[in-house]
UniProtKB/TrEMBL annotation:
SUPFAM superfamilies tied to this protein: Protein kinase-like (PK-like) (SSF56112)
MF terms in GO: ATP binding; protein serine/threonine kinase activity
GO cellular component: a single term: nucleus
PROSITE patterns: PROTEIN_KINASE_DOM
Domain Protein kinase: 64-324
Alphabetical list of InterPro entries matching this protein: Kinase-like_dom_sf (IPR011009), Prot_kinase_dom (IPR000719)
SMART domains named in the record: S_TKc
Protein's name according to its UniProt entry: Protein kinase domain-containing protein
Length: 373
């Protein structure tokens, strides 16, 4: 294998050197170096990041790929940890203060006592903020462990309708408090899996159980309606109420289809861009990929218009969606969410199985639009 010096030299020249499973990559080294200090603050990282870590596959007959401590981080800025006080698994996020100077303040604002329990607040709650003594460049925020908003998959149209409602009302809540998210695309929308996964799951292989030895069992959104959250306020901005018409120079978020950012540096309305982000998320994940969401086409088309000035404000989006939602029949709401690439035979079989399960919910009076308590 290459020496560390040789590896770094080759990295400079753009060559990727594969690491052995027991080697931490540079992102992991950052967390490994702070293992003890995080532990002293009440947060325990997984064994892989402990100074005393001995790879489990070296003392057993298992392949490293079958061992939970063989998994690397997906995103170097975020790591899972166990809160020692109550054994709750949480997420820790590393934030560079100079690069994202407003992120912590905006996140804490929505986690303040006055706002955190508001039913329309869909900003990820912040449990704790850690500043480690040796490193003032970074701050670590502690959040709930979440999952992508579309994982597990939506079972019924009604489940998706409830998701849309929470997202629209959550964005409206942010805008009413003069905050533009500026990157509320689909990858920054998550769900709280606590009720969906009563026995939890492994934070790195989320389809596996927390013990890494079997499938993670979950219920449906109809049975256990989840809450959805916006995350990542790295490029968000909060405006003074007196600034009724803010403008921002384009800054790329995760969605590269934003029309006003194409070949332009002209300051634009960040609130209108937020409306595009949400509309385009629904377009990409539902109108393109799923069947049965034609009722959203008109509203989404208006939300993603090329001219930001022609897009509806979020208040109008919420009002129009409420009318759409009330006009959907119970049969439509309980219908199955099907992929566009399903063949006819597959669709018939799955639909028959779906309605067999749905009859039980109807008989028990379970709402077609499941709303979290």
């Amino acid at each position: 294998m290459y020496s560390e010096r040789g590896r770094k030299a080759l990295e400079v020249w753009g060559t990727t050197i594969p690491l052995r499973p027991e080697e931490l990559d540079p992102r992991e080294v950052w967390w490994h170096a702070r293992y003890q200090r995080l532990k002293s603050r009440g947060y325990l990282l997984r064994p892989r990041y402990s100074p005393e870590w001995i790879p489990s596959w070296t003392t057993s007959n298992r392949d490293w790929a079958e061992c939970e401590d063989g998994k690397r981080l997906r995103y170097g800025q975020v790591i899972d940890a166990t809160r020692i006080s109550d054994s709750k698994v949480v997420a820790l996020k590393q934030i560079a203060r100079a690069e994202h100077p407003y992120e912590v303040d905006i996140a804490l604002y929505f986690s303040s006592e006055d706002l955190v329990f508001h039913p329309a607040n869909r900003c990820v709650p912040i449990y704790d903020v850690l500043v480690l003594d040796d490193d003032e460049e970074f701050v670590i925020v502690v959040m709930p462990l979440l999952r992508p908003y579309d994982n597990p998959r939506f079972d019924t149209v009604g489940e998706a309708v409830e998701c849309f409602r929470q997202l629209f009302e959550g964005l409206q809540f942010m805008h009413k408090h003069r905050v533009a998210h500026r990157d509320c695309m689909n990858k920054n929308i998550m769900l709280d899996p606590t009720r969906l996964y009563p026995e939890s799951f492994h934070p790195m292989e989320t389809d596996l159980n927390k013990d890494y030895n079997g499938h993670a069992k979950h219920l449906t959104r109809t049975q256990r309606p989840p809450k959805y959250y916006f995350i990542d306020f790295g490029i968000s901005r909060r405006y003074d109420p007196s600034n009724t018409d803010p403008r921002e120079v384009p800054i790329w978020g995760g969605d590269k289809e934003v029309p006003e950012f194409q070949n332009s540096n002209e300051p634009r309305d960040p609130f209108a861009t937020d409306v595009f982000y949400i509309g385009n998320a629904i377009k990409m994940d539902f109108l393109r990929e799923k069947r049965g969401f034609e009722f959203m086409k008109s509203l989404v088309a208006d939300m993603i218009q090329a001219d930001p000035a022609k897009r509806p404000k979020i208040d109008e989006v919420v009002a129009r969606f409420d009318v759409i939602r009330q006009g959907l029949s119970w049969r439509k709401l309980r219908s199955r969410v099907a992929d566009v690439d399903e063949d006819l035979f597959e669709r018939i079989v799955r639909t028959a199985t779906h309605w067999k399960r749905r009859i039980g919910f109807v008989a028990r009076g379970v709402p077609a639009i499941p709303t979290p308590s």
